[in-house]
Design goal:
Shape: globular
Radius of gyration: 16 Å
Strand order of the largest sheet: 6-7-5-4-3-2-1-8
Number of helices: 5
Number of strands: 8
């Protein structure tokens, strides 16, 4: 195998240092460690996944992460990021597909997220999953007062998940239950 082996699994407390490093490399306003710790230990309505990379004979590294909140019948994609060294390998797509599948299993029937108006790469990924821009939140990001786009995907159901499976996005990487 040329590249690293990637496996998705639930986030653990001992992942937080690497998760925070990905956050710092990916966002101008990263989450504090305490936010991830809270989601892991206090919020039963959170889905937290990581993509773990392992090269033959080397220690594993966290390559990406996603946090989803289940609010009634809605999955709110709170954050998703991939380490710069692992981008363009399908890891974000695998994390998103697996998180949406788990959200559906927990009762979500739709999904939503906010994204920076300038983040066209992320918007393109979300559009691949059927998310559509439904509104703009003016001056949402406090670091530069950039607008956020609110994107919704209204039909999270078995047919939708089947389409993701047919595209090969669910099961793109193996999932460990840890």
């Amino acid at each position: 195998m040329d590249g690293p082996e990637i496996q998705l699994r639930p986030m653990r407390l001992d992942d937080l240092q690497q998760v925070h490093a990905i956050d710092l490399a990916s966002f101008s306003i990263p989450w504090p460690d305490s936010a991830y710790r809270y989601e892991l230990t206090q919020n039963p309505n959170s889905i937290l996944l990581v993509a773990e990379s392992r090269l033959s004979g080397e220690e594993s590294q966290i390559a990406g992460m996603v946090v989803v909140w289940i609010v009634l019948d809605e999955a709110h994609i709170a954050t998703i990021a991939v380490h710069p060294d692992y981008r363009h390998m399908g890891i974000g797509r695998g994390l998103m597909a697996t998180a949406l599948k788990q959200a559906f299993a927990k009762g979500a029937k739709r999904a939503m997220l906010e994204v920076r108006a300038s983040n066209e790469v992320a918007q393109a990924l979300y559009r691949q999953f059927g998310f559509e821009i439904v509104s703009r939140r003016s001056k949402y990001y406090r670091d530069n007062l950039e607008d956020a786009l609110l994107m919704n995907m209204e039909k999270l159901d078995e047919t939708y998940l089947h389409c993701l499976e047919v595209k090969g996005w669910i099961g793109l990487f193996s999932m460990s239950v840890d």
